[in-house]
Write a structure and sequence with these properties.
By secondary structure, the protein is mainly alpha-helical. About 55% of the residues lie in helices and about 0% in strands.
């Protein structure tokens, strides 16, 4: 349970190693592009995936990447970075990004 006295963590990337910071940066870009280019279909898939994680993992708020896709605020340090295997947020975003037709990925630069 969240302590009512808790303050949000200002730096979302604090306490991440260099590899995790780079991955976080790339995932933020993919998430942004998916929202921008495929808002309707991506939003529905994202909500379904978030609901799946919430049901399967009672401790879902302890995963750093959960907060990235849910756009939620960190109030305490997350002991875990990503979910395992097919529940991986990195895998989910990567797979959805790969589904974009190439011309859609290039639209943002025109």
């Amino acid at each position: 349970m969240l302590n009512p006295e808790s303050k949000p963590i200002e730096d979302f990337d604090q306490n991440l190693n260099a590899e995790q910071k780079l991955l976080m940066k790339n995932l933020k870009i993919q998430r942004h592009d998916l929202y921008f280019l495929e808002l309707n279909s991506f939003s529905g898939a994202l909500v379904d995936f978030i609901n799946h994680l919430r049901k399967k993992y009672p401790d879902y708020q302890k995963y750093r990447l959960y907060h990235l896709i849910a756009s939620s605020t960190l109030f305490e340090e997350c002991p875990y970075f990503d979910f395992p295997d097919d529940d991986s947020i990195e895998k989910f975003l990567h797979d959805k990004y790969q589904e974009l037709p190439r011309h859609r990925k290039e639209e943002k630069f025109e």
